[in-house]
Amino acid sequence: MTLKLEEHKILMVDDDQHILDLLITVFEKEVFHNILTAITGTEALLKTTQENPDIILLDVMLPDIDGFTLCSKIRSHTNAPILFLTAKATDLDKLQGFSFGGDDYITKPFNPLEVVARVKAQLKRTPQISSSSSRKQVFDYGYFKINPNMGRLIVNGKRIECPTQEMKLLLYFCKHPNQILSKHQLYKDVWGGFYGGDSTVMVHVRRLREKLEVDPSRPKWIKTVRGLGYIFEAATSEDLM
């Protein structure tokens, strides 16, 4: 069943209690009341497995484990969106965050209202099961297929874990087959308008190719159009009952 925004469970992970208090205050004013916190990686991993949060805000510099490593551990338990919230602001740091399974990257100091906006954008785009839906759309391309309502990706007969942001990007490609899509357009429509530079889209496309392609260096499905963007080459897509 699709949740209202205020019903979503948020896990905030940061060893700075002042930051947690600030975020809680702002999020509660923006109707979010189901908020969990953790100040260590161990505590965050435990709450992820026990509480199954719908979205996670994750600092990188934690006292017991770095956030990048923690993100990869969390990914083995959930595909919930993970937003890094950190002072590590170099392009290399951002690329690491995405490569470890992050869905967005926000640098400190930050505007708390922007954090709320990005969380809302992620939650609105997260694939969810709707009990009122009488149909389940499946994009089936033979070698791989996607059930958006279940958030499930099957490649060559095997289920492949696909983080939320990668799933959103792949679904966007599937809904716009055989069209050239610019990086700016992809970021605007998939990430909710917060343009974070070419590297964000590039990293997610690379990770999708690693999941979908027999040879990611010579992609069959998601191809680069030099100077213009990307194109998802698909002859047909089907809606199955």
Keywords:
Rossmann fold, Arc Repressor Mutant, subunit A, single chain, alpha/beta, 241 residues, globular, five-stranded parallel β-sheet, four-stranded antiparallel β-sheet, disordered C terminus, 2 domains
Can you tell me about this structure?
The strands form three sheets. Strands 2-1-3-4-5 form a five-stranded parallel β-sheet, sandwiched between helices. The protein has a four-stranded antiparallel β-sheet with strand order 6-7-8-9, covered by helices on one side. It has a three-stranded antiparallel β-sheet with strand order 10-12-11. It is an alpha/beta fold and 241 residues long. Mean pLDDT is 85; it is low at 128-136 and 236-241. The protein folds into two domains: 5-125, Rossmann fold (3-Layer(aba) Sandwich), CATH 3.40.50; 139-232, Orthogonal Bundle (Arc Repressor Mutant, subunit A). The chain is 38% helix and 18% strand. Helix 3 (67-75) links the parallel strand 3 (55-58) and strand 4.
What's the SSE blueprint?
Blueprint: E1 10-13, H1 17-29, E2 35-38, H2 41-51, E3 55-58, H3 67-75, E4 82-86, H4 91-99, E5 104-107, H5 112-125, E6 139-140, E7 144-147, E8 152-155, E9 158-160, H6 164-175, E10 180-181, H7 183-190, H8 198-212, E11 222-225, E12 229-232
Spatial separation of the terminal alpha carbons: 19 Å
Order of helices and strands: EHEHEHEHEHEEEEHEHHEE
Number of helices: 8
Q: Provide the β-strand percentage band.
A: 15-25%
Shape: globular
